[in-house]
Each structure stands twice: as C-alpha cells, then as structure tokens.
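The authors assume throughout that readers already know how a fold can be written as discrete tokens. In essence, backbone conformation is discretised, so a fold becomes a row of integers matching the chain in length. A single example would do more here than another paragraph of explanation. For illustration, here is how one protein appears when written out as sequence plus structure tokens:

…
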Amino acid sequence: MSAPALIFRQPALRLIFLALLLLGAHNASVYPYQSLIAIERIGLSKPAFALVLVLASITAVTASVLFGILGDQRGHRRRIALVATVASLLGLLLMLCFPGKLSLILCHGILLPIASSLYGQLFALARLATPGSHSRDTVQAALRSAMSISFLAMLVFWTFGFAAQIDVMAIYLSAGLASFGLVVLVYFNWPKDGTTEWADQRSGLNFAQAFKEIAHPTILLRLLLLGAISATGILYMVLISLVFEASPIRDASDVALYVGLVAGWEVPCLLLLSRVAGRLRRATLLAVGGAVYTLHLLALPMLCDSAWIWVMPLVAGIGGTAIISLPISYYQDLMHSRPGTAGAMLALQKLVSDVLGAAAFAIGTSLGGYETVAVIGSAMALIGGAGLLWVDRHHNLPARQSSLPRSTRL
C-alpha cells in the first residue's frame, strides 16, 4: 500500500495529515511577519524583540522536552496535544483583541512556543500508528508534505492579500482560524488512551532518568551533528533577504518568489523520497541531503545577480527534503520506545542549529561578508554529514529499518 493510501485509510494518520495542513497555514501566517509586527506596529525595540526570540527559544525547548517525557511516562498524549493547541489559540486571541507589547510577549514568547511542541507530538503519534512493516520514513515524508503544501498556499494568499492592502495584523485572524481548527481536530479525533489498536508502552523513567537518557553521549553527539547539518536552513532564512536586498537587480518580491519556489519544490521531493528511503541508510541520505543543500546556500551570495539563481530552489528542495523529514525517524529509532521524547529532540536540534547558525553568521560577517557566512555554514554541514556517516559506519540497515542496533538504544 502506498503511503498516501495508508494515510487516508488509517484514522490516526489522517488526523496527523490534516493537523499538519493547519499547522503549516498557522506558521506561514505568523512567523514571516512577527518581526515586522513587533518592531513596526507594536513598537518593540530591536534588542527587546531579540529578547522575545530568546524567551521563545527557551520556552519551546522546555515545553517540547517536558511534554515529550510526560507523554512517554504517562500517556495522555491527547491531553498534551490539547494543551498545545489551546495555548496557540489563546496567544493569537490576545493579539487580536488586545494588541500591545504585553500581548506580543505572551503570544510570541510563551504561548506560541508552547504550541510548537505539537509538531513533535504529531510525529510521536505517527510513529505509534504506522504499521511496523511499512516504511516509517515514507509515511512521515508524505505527512510532512502536508505542512509544506499549506505553508506555500498561505504564503501565496498573503502575497495577494497584502497587495490588496489588507492590514498585516490580519495574519492573526488566519492563524487563529487554523488554531481553532487544530483544537477541534485534536479534541474530537485524537485517539483516547486505551482505545488504540497499537500499544503505547510507558517508559517507566522518572524525569532524572529521562534527562540522563537525553544527555547520553550517544544521543548528544548525533544531536550536534544533525544540528550542524540543519544549521544551513537557519542561515538560508537569514541570508536570503539580506543578499537579495544588497543586489542591484533583486527586491522583496524576488525574496518571496525564491522562498515560495523552495517550499514548492519540497512537496514533490518529499513524496518521491519513498523511492530511495528503503535502499539507503538514513545517515547516508542525511549526509547527501546536507551536501546538496550547501550548493544552494553557496549560490545565494555568489549567483544572486545571475539567472542561474532560479535553478537553486530545485536544488534546495532536493537537499532539504532529507533534512526536514528524516531526523524525526532517526531520533525515534535512536530512542527506541520513546516516541514523545524523540519528537522533543527536534526542538533541541533547532536550538543547536540556531546557535551554530548565529555563530557562523557572526564569524562570517566579521571576517568577510555573506559569501564567508555561506562557506562557513556549508563547511559545518559537510562536517556534520561526514561525522554522522562515521558514527553510524558499522550500521548497514536501510532507512526503513532502525539505523542503530538495539544494543546502542538506551
């Protein structure tokens, strides 16, 4: 059975697909415009907004890890997902009804970051609900494509919406509608404990033991390597507007078009991943994907003024497919029987990527320019990919099976 057929026949997977559609629309409504709203409309200073971003990062990691551990300890995954969706809805309602500095800090610094834990919980449910005989990479890549589809559609919608003079604060309305849909979807369709066809085994670990598991060198080393690979995505989002703005022939519309093309190419590439996911090791796919993605990162400052720059979204789509879809299943196999904690590893990986990306940007701009930043980021990704291949060098299972033998699982 193909992955799309399995998704639409299995109620839990169908729920995840629909939830990711709504989550993509939510994210595309809020995150591209939060800095504009915070600084230009609400009146936060740039240093104050930077502190909000730091608060958001800390909150997101804390919530994801705590919710992941609690889900593995006690179950109650539906209750945890409801908390996340309600947090999002409350934050967006604050900005709709009482726009101001306090509302923005609560919304973007606390409530939306808490809601971001839903992403990991959705893939924890996907891990539990996917039949063991089926390639989880294939199913999860197909599920992830839903988020890319709605993200792109919402970007296109707001491109025309802003051209029609819709106020930028209206993004909280579209995001709020998506959040309300998530609350309804989770409340009525998320399977309740004890009613599922699969067994959701409890971890039996207290918080100290669970944190010790995450801090094991086996986990931390791979987290650092995957963070180095995915830091290229962080640098891409930082460089794209700066590089195009500095170009004499590019403008903001080119930025929107480029970002939209990258997101658009991710969708077919995610769906085609199933053709190679069962034939190559997951570490190999991640290393190759990271190497391909560096070509797109290097091209941004070097080919910006050339027509060849418009070939790079395809390259980014091919390379980015592995980077955005495979880490979750990699962590799920690494942390056997801990799907919630494995989902939380994505938040920790993003934190690592943010730190490495910021370091690459600071060093690169002090030593040279945007080209230097791209070179440093590409070097980090290549080192991360090579390191991942090395630490997994003795494990020859294809991606549809565990990338690590049971003896290394904690």
Q: What stands out?
A: The chain is about 80% helix and 0% strand.
